[in-house]
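From: lab user (bench 3)
To: helpdesk
Subject: output format question, protein + pyridoxal-5'-phosphate

Hello, I'm new to running complex predictions and I'm not sure whether the block I got back is the full result or only part of it. Here's what I submitted:
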Amino acid sequence: MKYISTRGQAPELTFEEAMLTGLARDGGLYVPESWPTLSEDQIAGFAGKSYEDVAFEVMKPFVGDTFGDAEFREIIAKAYSSFGHDARCPLVQLDSNHYLLELFHGPTLAFKDVAMQLIGQMFEAALKRSGNRVTIVGATSGDTGSAAIEAFRGLDAVDVFIMYPHGRVSEVQRRQMTTPVEDNVHALAVDGDFDTCQALLKDMFNDFDFRDSVQLAGVNSINWARVLAQVVYYFTSAVSLGAPHRKVSFTVPTGNFGDIFAGYVAKRMGLPIDRLVIATNQNDILHRTLQSGDHSKTGVVPSISPSMDIQVSSNYERLVFDLYDREGEAVAQLFEALKDVGSFKLSQGALGRMADEFDSGRVSEDETSAAIKDYYERTGEVLCPHSAIGAKIGDEMQGDVPMITLATAHPAKFPAAVEAACGEHPALPPRMADLFERDERVTRVAGDLAAVEAVIRERIAG
Ligand SMILES: Cc1ncc(COP(=O)(O)O)c(C=O)c1O
Ligand SMILES: N[C@@H](CCOP(=O)(O)O)C(=O)O
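Helpdesk reply: Thanks, we reran it on our side. This is the complete output you should expect:
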């Protein structure tokens, strides 16, 4: 399998190269040159298999011979051994035809662990083989950062720098990033919002002098391997409800569009998904786009679901690439306009193709709190604000087929919002019970490329 850039001007890469490269050198995102498909029999055969076995079969066509079969199976086994549930990503019934896919049983209590634990193992294997060293820089609205730090802390061949928006993540999220003691971990509190952090990251990748001198690598969903690992749980959950003999729909709390894009990939691979529902908070650019085709940035407004406080949804570019029949030049024009003037308009054809696959909904702050309370009272489930947004929209969009809503984080990551909404204080697991007593280590930095690059260069030199 070869990987090509959504902007059509960067060299084709293998899986391993794409994983270690991050952003394409033309500013685009790497995607597989075509979507591999699985037969109905293959998908039916997933029933009763372990999460790890399904992961191997779903990801193998994308990974090719980067790892031998035995090595790849071992990588997958190690990645998920740290999960606190035997099913890894269990499905819980909310009501008669609505299910919650719990993705928060990994070490940092968010769905990011599902991919990040795997990427940590894959990076380690690839870097051991090559003897190379890399500088991972990540942008986070709270969860990617802690998951990346957990996956890479203490690794000799890696320095990991995480930029988060100062004052805009929950206290638990911040402490998960600022309290690890390993020397290769560097938390950077950036003045700005998540979009500032992600733009800085992309600018770093486009600064070839910096990129090459620090051996820059990325573990945001810029990295194709991140999205790939998330495709697996669409298969495991759908099959447990009767796929491929029965269709299912998914509702996905959405920000950077990585998680729901993984669902789109599962559908391209042959999983019978009826609807993919984008659930947004008040930062609703994707919901507005689906209504009118107008993809216009507005400022990011802080919310009680901070991980979704995003207006530049990076992976939307991967979808637009398909919506425009994989014409890199058209995609480059649209996303350059988004950067330069803050908006672009989808063609009628592209909007129609998007509407064929996706629905969307938006949940306000008050509605988010009310949804947390309502689910707690009706079902006993304490949901994090992101998952509550998904569940509310999932309920509204229910049709004839089962609806699976992705529960993307554990409520204990957002105790203040959850307690204010439903009166329950969600406890952290015992292994994290002293999180609030640990010392924090963080560098405050201006939201400015030169300033961030200077900090990174200085730390690496030191
Ligand atoms: C808890 C939580 N829910 C939902 C999202 C949105 O996911 P995505 O950015 O893949 O759309 C994120 C951030 O990525 C998150 O951390
Ligand atoms: N919500 C994310 C934002 C970054 O998304 P990613 O999937 O591109 O890593 C976060 O929690 O950091």
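A quick orientation on your result: The first helix runs from residue 15 to 21. Let us know if anything else is unclear.
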